[in-house]
Amino acid sequence: MITYLLLFAATMAISLIAGARVKSKFRQWSAFNATSGLTGAQAAEQILRQAGIHDVLVVPYEGMLSDHYDPVNKKLALSEGVYNSRSVAALGVAAHEAGHALQHAQAYAPLAWRMSAVKVTSFASGAMMFLPIVFSLMGLLKLGLIFMAVGMSIIMLFNLITLPVEFDASRRAKVLLSRSGMIRPGEEERGVNEVLNAAGLTYVAAFVTSLAYLFYYLLPLLTGREE
């Protein structure tokens, strides 16, 4: 129990630090408008047009940093602080999500893998909420550990696949914004880099957390001390 509490505290701290950093960088660069005068929505639409993508709709979405690309419905959803904002932070986030649309259009393999893994990952995550309790009540502790290890393996692999997807989208965003002149070299470019790099750390934190929990459930099975 002590080991679990220490693991929980450590991984929670990593996640909170990563989340706080991305919010801090987003707030910082949200106060700095890009000289191009484009809003996040306009930047995303321009990137899509330049890539020859005309079937993706850019829409507003409620919430802070709730931006995402929906490959099923082909919608690029931008949060309230991004859609109508002309800030450097908004352009960085919008271009990042547009990068996912480009990945989809170009059949980027890691994105396809992640899309295929969504349902099984959601099922594993949901089942891990209650099945271990059932196994424990039935006295099947080893079976419960095996189930948790398998479920966490699925989540860890999903988080691993997510890393190249997110880092590639950020790489595309930086290049596209600079080449198109939507952001200027120097301070604006630095702002985009800081916001997107901070966002990338949240995905690293998620992967590290899932990997740590996987080892936590695997270790008793490997050492034979699950009892």
Outline type? elongated
Number-wise, the strands total 3
Give the strand line-up of the largest sheet: 1-3-2
Q: What is the CA–CA distance across the termini? A: 13 Å
What class would the helix/strand composition place it in? Answer: mainly alpha
Give the ordered list of helices and strands: HHEEEHHHHHH
Poorly predicted runs are none
Main β sheet profile: 3 strands, mixed
Radius of gyration: 20 Å
How many separate domains make up the residues?
A: 1
Helix content: over 70%
Number of H- or I-type helical stretches: 8
Overall mean pLDDT score?
Answer: 92
Strand content: 5-15%
List keywords for this structure.
8 helices, mainly alpha, 227 residues, elongated, single chain, 3 strands, three-stranded mixed beta sheet
Account of the 3D structure:
The protein is mainly α and 227 residues long. It has one domain (2-35, 88-223). 73% of the residues lie in helices and 6% in strands. The protein is built from eight helices and three strands. It has helices spanning 2-30, 40-50, 80-83, 88-105, 109-127, 131-137, 141-180, 187-223, and strands spanning 57-61, 68-70, 75-79. Strands 1-3-2 form a three-stranded mixed β-sheet. Strand 2 and strand 3 form a beta hairpin. The two termini are 13 Å apart.
